[in-house]
Design a protein that fits this description.
Layout (H helix, E strand, L loop, with lengths): L1 H17 L5 H15 L6 H32 L3 H11 L3 H15 L5 H19 L3 H15 L7 H9 L3 H34 L1 E3 L11 E2 L16 E3 L32 E2 L2 E2 L14 H17 L4 H16 L3 H10 L1 H23 L2 H11 L9 H15 L2 H17 L5 H7 L4 H4 L6 H10 L3 H25 L4
Antiparallel strand pairs: 1-3, 2-3, 4-5
């Protein structure tokens, strides 16, 4: 009964948010509360929620102060050189923009924190996507999948959990997996290329001022006269589109194109420079160029302390945020302004995390998640025993999507490893196979960082899920296939 209710609760949640019948926060709270009553344990709902909140409170605190810290670092210009390099590569070619999104997300993911990755990636790429009319779900999907592959780094979480649960060395799990994970990351880049080509066909090839237009250019978007509303967007030329584009360079301009995104979108983002598009305003008043090396050193120290686990991560970000604000903005009004600037993201993410505490609290407290895992493990045919590594890899996709990493690695993985050991399968193989589902896991509704991504990108969670799940699952299967081909799994 609990097994059925668990799967029904998850299915109901996903269907309602993908059909946009409920907001994620409302669905995360009301659906589990209702199913808790169905399970006959409504009297214990308060206990389950408080327990869930207690477990997720450190995560909420970490995200709150991480958003403030990295928001300040973005404000003061710490990541501008990386962003400029990526945007120089992207220019205004939709294919390059999407590939650049994947590259930027992969690079920033080296810090091991998904929230940081999504904050920097969206801050850099969002204005470019909006100005060129590209699909924002492509941005969120590519960023989440790239981060999911990189989430397997030993300091990212899953590898350390697998090592702890099976009493293994994290290096013995991760290092042999590098070739398979490299194939997975390469697949993400190929996927980004394919999606970028599709976007190029949809909106055409876009050329910014100072770039040479292709010889077969059919039309050009002429820059607006100074002082007009259209002048807020950079001039771009559109070529290789099925229908011509015509935009008058004045207020009240008109446009026609095969796709609605062919015309530029003015959204108050930074202007274009002579050599390309600037995703972050190079003249914003919050820049602190004289403190660049202090901020860089502070960030390196912070990330090093995280990796070495000198203090709990929430405490590190709390201290880092306080220090960054004090040094970069010594005047109280400026500090209040920076906190206010990031308050929306803080509130949205923290609210989503505490709402998710209801979902996870009911799943765990009622015993649904345990019954679901036991049912899945028990459904494995006896003849699959010698192939438990493959089974573990396949199970890691749905289980890490519907469960927290803690629940999977500490609750299910030891059972799978024990079943594998009975058939001569090494725990190391089981541990490595358990990592392949992380590309899909990063888009799970139980992962707080994904709400940072969709919130900053202004994308509906249901739209992101509907677009991303298939590509993320395919990426995980590619990693699994590569691991088996190389003899790692």
């Amino acid at each position: 009964m609990l097994t059925f209710l668990g799967f029904a609760m998850i299915a109901t949640f996903l269907v309602l948010i993908m059909m946009k019948k409920m907001s994620p926060i409302a669905a995360l709270v009301l659906i589990p509360a209702l199913f808790c009553v169905f399970a006959g344990k409504g009297a214990h709902l308060g206990d389950y929620v408080i327990e869930g909140v207690g477990k997720l409170a450190p995560t909420a605190a970490m995200l709150m102060f991480a958003i403030v810290y990295f928001g300040v670092m973005i404000d003061v210009g710490l990541f501008d050189p990386i962003v400029r390099g990526i945007l120089r590569f992207c220019k205004a070619d939709p294919m390059r923009v999407v590939v650049g999104t994947a590259v930027l997300a992969a690079i920033v993911s080296l810090d091991g924190d998904g929230s940081t990755t999504f904050m920097i990636t969206v801050s850099a790429m969002y204005p470019l996507y909006k100005r060129l009319g590209l699909s924002l779900v492509v941005m969120t999907g590519v960023a989440a999948t790239a981060n999911g592959v990189m989430n397997t780094l030993p300091w990212g979480g899953p590898t350390a959990r697998a090592a702890t649960a099976l009493k293994l060395d994290a290096a013995d799990i991760f290092v042999p997996m590098i070739p398979a994970l490299a194939v997975g990351l390469l697949f993400v880049f190929v996927l980004a290329y394919v999606l970028g080509v599709k976007e190029r066909r949809r909106v055409g090839t876009l050329v910014l001022p100072g770039q040479a237009a292709p010889e077969d250019a059919e039309a050009e978007l002429v820059p607006a006269a100074p002082g007009t509303a259209a002048a807020a967007a950079p001039a771009v030329a559109v070529t290789s589109v099925p229908a011509s584009v015509s935009v008058e360079g004045s207020a009240g301009s008109s446009a026609s194109a095969a796709g609605p995104a062919a015309a530029p979108h003015g959204n108050g983002s930074a202007p274009a420079s002579e050599d390309g598009f600037q995703g972050l305003d190079p003249d914003r008043p919050t820049l602190r160029p004289r403190l660049y090396w202090f901020n860089a050193g502070l960030t390196v120290v912070l990330l090093t302390a995280m990796i070495m686990e000198l203090l709990p991560i929430p405490v590190l970000f709390l201290l880092g945020a306080a220090l960054a604000l004090t040094v970069n903005f010594p005047h109280m009004p400026d500090q209040k302004a920076r906190i206010a600037a990031h308050a929306d993201n803080v509130l949205n993410v923290a609210g989503m995390v505490f709402a998710a505490a209801v979902f996870t609290g009911v799943l765990t407290g009622t015993g649904m998640v345990k019954h679901m895992a036991d049912w899945l493990v028990g459904a494995i045919p006896e003849g699959m025993g010698p192939h438990m590594a493959l089974v573990t890899g396949l199970l890691s996709l749905p289980l890490t999507y519907f469960m927290s990493n803690d629940g999977f690695y500490f609750g299910v993985l030891p059972v799978l490893a024990e079943a594998g050991a009975a058939h001569g399968v090494s725990p190391l193989e089981i541990a490595r196979a358990s990592l392949v589902g992380q590309a899909l896991h990063m888009s799970s509704p139980l992962v707080p960082a994904v709400y940072v991504l969709v919130g900053m990108a202004k994308v509906e969670f249901g739209d992101h899920t509907r677009f991303t799940v298939k590509w993320a699952a395919l990426t995980s299967l590619v990693v699994l296939a590569a691991g088996m081909l190389f003899g790692i799994i």
